[in-house]
Structures are given as C-alpha cells and as structure tokens.
Amino acid sequence: MKIALKYSYDGSKFSGSQTQPNVQAVEDAINEALNHVGIYEPVLSGSRTDKGVHALSQISTVHCGDFWNLNRLKDQISRHLSPYINLKDIWIVDQDFHPRFSAVAREYRYIIYHGDKSPFLSDFVYFYPNLDLKRLNLALACFIGKQDFKPYYKVGSGEKSTIREIYKAYAYQIQKSAFSINRYSDKPNLTIIKFKA
Predict the structure, then answer these.
(1) Which residues lie across from 188 on neighbouring strands?
(2) Torsional class of 145: left (φ above 0), alpha (ψ -120 to 50), beta (otherwise)
(3) Which residues on adjacent β-strands are paired with residue 145?
(4) According to the model, what pLDDT value does residue 115 have?
(5) Distance CA 59, CA 105 (A)
(6) What are the extents of the domains in the chain?
C-alpha cells in the first residue's frame, strides 16, 4: 500500500530536506527511521527546503506492506526518528497520489522578531526593528496574482513554466508571544509574513 507521512522538522539541524551526498538531510533521517521498521523504499516528498528552513506540515509518500496497522507503524517510525522531526500523521493514499503534483497550494511564513537578539531564537526568526505594517501590506499586495518568477529559477531547472500564482500575501503582528523577553512592552514583538501560492 502507499502511505503519506505528514511531519514537521527543525531545519536548522539538517542540510536541507532533500537527500544529498555527504550531508544529513531530513529525507535521510526519515529514510533511516523507515529502514529500522523494514521499509526500504526512499520517500518522495512534496517540496524541498534549504538548510535552516523549517516545515510545519511536510508531506512525503512511500510504499509499505499492507499488513501494517497505521497507528502502530506511526509509533514504530517515531521511535527511530531524529528528535528534530515530529511525525504527525500517516494515512493511505491512492497509487496515483503524488505529494508534489497533487498539492493544490503551499503556505510559507517568515517570522521577524522586533526584540533584543537572542541566541535561543536565532534559528527561528530574523531580527529587525519594528516595521510599518500598513506599508508592508501595501508592498506585499503587489505579489498577489500570476507572476513570472524566471529571475529566481536555477539554471537548468526542469520546470516547464516559470509562471506561478500567489493567492495570499500579507503580514500581521503579534503583541505578546512565547518569544517575548520584555513582557512589559506594548510594542509588537513579532511580524509574520505569510504567502499562499
């Protein structure tokens, strides 16, 4: 049977998500955990992230024996996973399901922290003084719609089209959060920039 794995990971602990020679990638850690339970086919993932980029809901697929109880399989795989990867769910998918091409959209978030720099946050946020939210949202609105992203493609990319559609692009601020170091400030300490494409 073909199953989908939904997981999150701390990208600061890996050299990107896709398997590469001579480095530890997220897919390598997933494949190692699968090997421990007798699944030797490598995973196929829905997207790639660079070194230092995190994921909240990455999707990968793999084939496994149809004798598995999915709850038990999830527990067995989780037991062998890196502590920086959390397997959130497993379910059976159709044979023609593709984690990349069956996706209808993807969401990306960029987190900007406006407080004092902290080594404990440096893998998860970008430090920058406060932003003008109204002006930022006016600028982000320019991304909405179909755009040609050819200047951002790698040379030799196999993509047939460089046109992509951005459905949402906006920013919002959070006054207080778990990131707050100074709990007495009334200023926003986080700006989240969100894209859905």
Answers:
(1) none
(2) left
(3) 166
(4) 86
(5) 12
(6) 2-92, 107-196
Rounded-to-integer distance, Cα 91 and Cα 98, Å: 14
pLDDT band at 130 (very low <50, low <70, confident <90, very high): confident
Percent of the chain at pLDDT exceeding 70: 92
Of the residues 10, 28, 50, 116, which is catalytic? 50
Q: What is the CATH number of domain 107-196?
A: 3.30.70.660
Write out the H or E segment, with its range, that includes residue 26. Answer: helix 26-36
**Consecutive H or E run containing 2:** strand 2-9
Domains 2-92 and 107-196 share a fold: yes
Say if residue 30's pLDDT is above 70: yes
Query: Are 70 and 92 in contact, with CB atoms under 8 Å apart?
Result: yes
**133 within 8 A of 171, measured Cβ to Cβ:** yes
The sign of the torsion formed by the CA atoms of 92, 36, 8, 26 equals negative
Q: Catalytic residue at 50?
A: yes
pTM above 0.70, yes or no: yes
The encoded tokens of residue 12 equal: 């600061």
CATH topology of domain 2-92: Alpha-Beta Plaits (3.30.70)
Greatest CA span in the chain, whole angstroms? 56
